[in-house]
Each structure stands twice: as C-alpha cells, then as structure tokens.
C-alpha cells in the first residue's frame, strides 16, 4: 500500500511539474479540446471555459500551409508521436510559437481515443532567430533583401519548373562613384536609400516583383509570373525612367541613371548564381555600350563573355610567350610622296586562335593593369627596330617613329623615365619619337597630363593628339597642352565627300597652321580623298591607299622599292 501511495505521489509531482512548466491540452480524436491547463489559457488569451469544447483550429494563425497539418494528422493518426514547431494565434490576434509534442492516447482496445499535446513557449527564441535572419537577409542601409535573400528567391523560382515566365533585372547606377567621391559618402548613402524607396514602390504594386540590393550601387529586381518574356523589357524601361528622375538630397540636385541588364526564363540557368551572372553580363554590355535602354542576355553575350575570359587568361603571359608583334604603317608626304615616318601598331598572334585584333585585347589589358608592360614592350620594340633601320637603311630609314600611349601609361609615374632610358638605350634622337595620345586620355586627369607631357617635351620628344576632333574638348586641348601634331580622325576623311566635313577639315588645317602644328590625316583610302586633302593644304597622311600596316621586313622591302602609291602614281 505504501508503495502504491509513493508511486501516486511521484506521478502527481510529475504532472504538477509538467503542468507548471509546460502548456498542456487534451483533445478527442476530432480535435475538440477536452482539457487545458493554466499555461494554455495564459498564452492563448482564452479562458478555460472558452477553450474546452472548442475545436483546436481556433488557434490557427494561417502561417503554415495545409500540407503542414496534413502531414501532422497523418502521423498521429497512425498512432505515432509528432513533434514540431507551430505558430499559433492568440485571442488578441498576436502570434506565438510553441515547440509541440502530440502523443496519441489509446483505450483498452488499443484504439486512439484522443491526443495529449505538450507545448513549450519558444516565441522569444523565434524572435531572436527572426532578428538574426533579418540581419543575414536584409541590407542594413536600405532595408531591401540582400544578395543571400534574392539568391534564395531566384533558386526557388528556378526549382519550381513552372510554365510561367520570369525574369531578372540587374541594374548598376551610372556616375555613382563620382557622386560618392565628390559629395561624400553620406550623400551617396542617401542616394542609395532613395533608389531603394523607388524600387520598393514598384514592389508594392504586385507580389510578383521582388527588389534587392546586391551591394555598392548594384540592385536586382526579380519579376515572376510574366505573361511573356518581353514584358520584362517594359518593366525595365519603366524602372529606368523612374530612376532617372533627379534626386533632391542634402541640398543637392543629383542626376543619375541606371544601366540595366535582363535575363529571362527563356535562357533558364540551373542555379541562381548562373542566372545572376547572365543578368550581370547584360548589364555590363549596356553600361559599356552607353545605351539608354536595357540589354537582354542572349547566347551572343555569353560567347562574348567566354571569349573575354579566354583573352584575359591568355594575356597574362603574352609578352613572355613572345606572341606580340609590331606592324608599321607608313606616314607619307602628300605632295612629294616621300616616306616621312611610321606608326607602330601592335598585333597579337596567338598559336591557336591566330591574329587577335587590338580592339579585342587592348581595353582588356587596360582593365587588367597589363597595359603598362604591353605599352613598354611596344615602345622598346619600336625603338629597337628604328635603331636597326637607321643602321641598315641609312638615309632611307623612317625619320619619325609614332608610338601610341595609353591613359594608364600617361598617368604612371615612370613613363618619363622609361622613355628617357629607351631613347638612350637605342640611340634614338628624341625629336624622332612621336608619342600619340587621344583627347579623352589627356582630358581624363588634366593636371597629371599637363605635368607629364611637359616633362616629355623637355626630353625633346613630340606629342601628337590622335583621333583629333572626336573628343568633347578639342579646342581646349590645343590651348592647354604642349602639342606638336594633330592627327585628323579617319571618320573626317571617310566623310570628306560631304561639304560640311570638308569645311571642318579645312578649318582644322588652317587653325593648326596658325598654331604652328603639323597635321596628319588618317585613313586615306582612295585618290579622291588624297586630292581633296592636298587641295586643303594637308601635308602628311597615312592609310591603306599608301600601304596597310606591314611587318618590319616587308616595310624594308617597300622602302627600298618605294612600293606604295604616290601622288604621281595616283594621277593627282
């Protein structure tokens, strides 16, 4: 008897402990609440009288999908214990989370007669987890979903394998770095917040749009349930227009626009990262092309990107593999036909891909900071070749050597020293060397350009402005920089059959003469162009009419044979 009483005492103590610590309820097989302890009443906000006899569904919050409860019922209906976390709704409408264990209760015949539900309040833990999730998946500055969050959303859409169309817009803001650097990071941050607000308004209009900040000035927008892939372009154009409206921030009126790349479900990727990469490629193309419209990703862009990556990889050791070669295009006196000099032009002969044109690798070399060694190679090799010609050809050797200089070379502190050393090494008189720079290059950083060009002038070398007339500050260029030669852009010569272009060429030649500058016309391709330039008083020129760029050996033969058209040969 004492043992039975002891067991009953222990059982009561256990029940009291459970009742005190946990949230306890008993339901019948249909889910009608039969018993509820004080903790249940306290957390739910219902009285015991309100709970008992009610269906447990009064606690449902709507947070969980129907499948969640179907799985739960299936398991406990088989007589098995179920455990999981449930979000319930209290009487006042607030949500609370409970770690729940539901245990089937059996009658003497072994049939389920009801269920015992034991719950523990985990609302605080869930709030903490939600806060951590918020930190991990929200951008701290704008409050938009961040990269991790949008990647999850993209992957969910990809995995859905629905017939509905969707698209991803990748946008980058033009001039953001300039705004950030000139007006300060506070204004830059305010601009990003304003951009996020405008995107957020677009998101509010439909649940099928989700915007996110990738970082920096890059944002993406996921468009779901599109009627057709083309709809993505319409949305992108509308966003581009909205985002281009001036921003009033911190007393400043700020103008910015977005370059937008689009990838649609027509080019479905296996992973969110790949889809994001494709949209980024399209954005990069839009930014590089400087077009005021979105660019849609296609296979051509993918092939272009792969080719670029291939060029990047192969460029790293191009000099050590001895794959770079210089070609030389003659510069001719347009009156006498005399050979006056050459322009050194770089070519890349790849053992597998053949000749890779300069316009495909020079800009990449610039971005990779390989243009300095490549530029130094050109200068060194061209001067070495001129030294050889001066020894072998004597008075027939080119009198002048023209070498192109990139922006990064011009802004590099060693350029003057490099030029000085190369001239000394190959015994080249400084006045024989012409360094060619474009307007855009010298205008990029006027202070550095003026200083460097003046130092080069002190060495005795000549400074040529290449592609003159195509920049935005041609006349300013003539006033501010120590220039010796203007090279008329080939586009002027190409359009010389138009009266307006002819007048412009004539005006530039007269202006150069007044300033004591030499003029070289580029891109002369026929006798008519040559005759016009002669009539306008242009003294020097180059182009395929005289000769295409030649390797050194072929140029030597042409020099010895005078094997290119002259004014007399052209009948003018």
Describe the structure.
It holds the Pfam family EAL. With 572 residues, this protein is α/β, with parallel strands linked by helices. It has three domains: 110 residues, Beta-Lactamase, CATH 3.30.450.20; 160 residues, Alpha-Beta Plaits (2-Layer Sandwich); 253 residues, TIM Barrel, CATH 3.20.20. Helices cover 46% and strands 23% of the residues. It has 22 helices and 21 strands. The strands form four sheets. The chain has an eight-stranded mixed beta barrel, surrounded by four helices. Strand 14 and strand 15 form a beta hairpin. The longest helix has 22 residues.
Low-confidence stretches: 1-14, 568-572
Overall structural domain count: 3
Query: What is the helix content?
Result: 40-55%
Radius of gyration: 38 Å
Cα separation of the termini: 135 Å
CATH topology of the largest domain: TIM Barrel
The biggest beta sheet reads:
8 strands, mixed, barrel
Q: What is the average per-residue confidence, as pLDDT, rounded to a whole number?
A: 88
- Give the class-level CATH name of the largest domain: Alpha Beta
Task: Tell me the CATH superfamily of the largest domain.
Answer: EAL domain
- Which class of secondary structure composition applies to the elements? alpha/beta
Domain GGDEF: 164-299
Domain PAS: 24-65
Keywords: Hydrolase
EC number: 3.1.4.52
């Amino acid at each position: 008897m004492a043992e039975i009483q002891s067991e009953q005492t222990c059982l009561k103590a256990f029940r009291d402990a459970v009742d005190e610590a946990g949230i306890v309820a008993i339901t019948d097989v249909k889910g009608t609440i039969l018993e509820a302890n004080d903790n249940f009443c306290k957390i739910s906000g219902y009285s015991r009288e309100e709970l008992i006899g009610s269906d447990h569904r009064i606690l449902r919050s709507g947070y969980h999908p129907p499948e969640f409860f179907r799985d739960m019922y299936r398991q406990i209906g088989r007589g098995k214990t179920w455990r999981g976390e449930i979000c319930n709704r209290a009487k006042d409408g607030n949500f609370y989370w409970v770690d729940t264990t539901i245990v089937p209760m059996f009658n003497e015949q072994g049939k389920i007669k009801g269920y015992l539900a034991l719950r523990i309040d985990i609302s605080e833990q869930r709030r903490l987890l939600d806060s951590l999730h918020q930190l991990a998946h929200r951008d701290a500055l704008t409050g938009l979903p961040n990269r991790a969050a949008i990647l999850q959303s993209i992957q969910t859409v990809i995995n859905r394998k629905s017939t509905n169309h969707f698209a991803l817009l990748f946008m980058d803001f033009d001039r953001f770095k300039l705004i950030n650097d000139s007006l300060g990071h506070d204004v830059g941050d305010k601009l990003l917040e304003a951009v996020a607000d405008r995107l957020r308004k677009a998101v509010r209009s439909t649940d099928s749009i989700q915007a996110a900040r990738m970082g920096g000035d890059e944002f993406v927008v996921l468009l779901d349930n599109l009627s057709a892939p083309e709809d993505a372009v319409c949305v992108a154009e509308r966003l581009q227009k909205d985002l281009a409206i001036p921003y009033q921030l911190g007393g400043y009126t700020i103008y910015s626009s977005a370059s937008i790349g689009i990838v649609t479900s027509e080019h479905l990727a296996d992973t969110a990262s790949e889809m994001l990469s494709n949209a980024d490629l399209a954005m990069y193309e839009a930014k590089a092309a400087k077009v005021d419209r979105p660019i849609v990703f296609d296979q051509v862009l993918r092939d272009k990107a792969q080719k670029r990556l291939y060029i990047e990889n192969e460029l790293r050791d191009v000099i050590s593999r001895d794959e770079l070669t210089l070609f030389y295009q003659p510069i001719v006196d347009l009156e006498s036909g005399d050979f006056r000099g050459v322009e050194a032009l770089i070519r890349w002969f790849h053992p597998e891909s053949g000749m890779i044109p300069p316009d495909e690798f020079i800009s990449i070399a610039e971005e990779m900071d390989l243009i300095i060694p490549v530029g130094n190679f050109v200068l060194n090799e061209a001067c070495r070749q001129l030294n050889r010609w001066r020894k072998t050809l004597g008075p027939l050797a080119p009198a002048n050597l023209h070498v192109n200089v990139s922006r990064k070379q011009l802004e590099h502190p060693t350029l003057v020293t490099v030029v000085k050393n190369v001239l000394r090494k190959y015994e080249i008189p400084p006045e024989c060397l012409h360094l060619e720079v474009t307007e855009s290059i010298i205008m990029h950083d006027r202070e550095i350009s003026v200083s460097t060009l003046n130092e080069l002038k002190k060495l005795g070398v000549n400074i040529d402005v290449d592609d003159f007339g195509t920049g935005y500050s041609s006349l300013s260029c003539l006033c501010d920089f120590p220039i010796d030669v203007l090279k008329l852009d080939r586009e002027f010569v190409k359009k010389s059959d138009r009266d307006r272009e002819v007048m412009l060429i004539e005006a530039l030649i007269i202006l150069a003469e007044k300033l004591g500058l030499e003029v070289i016309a580029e891109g002369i391709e026929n006798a008519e162009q040559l005759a016009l330039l002669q009539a306008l008083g242009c003294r020097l020129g180059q182009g395929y009419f005289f000769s295409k760029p030649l390797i050194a050996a072929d140029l030597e033969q042409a020099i010895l044979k005078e094997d290119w058209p002259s004014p007399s040969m052209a009948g003018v």
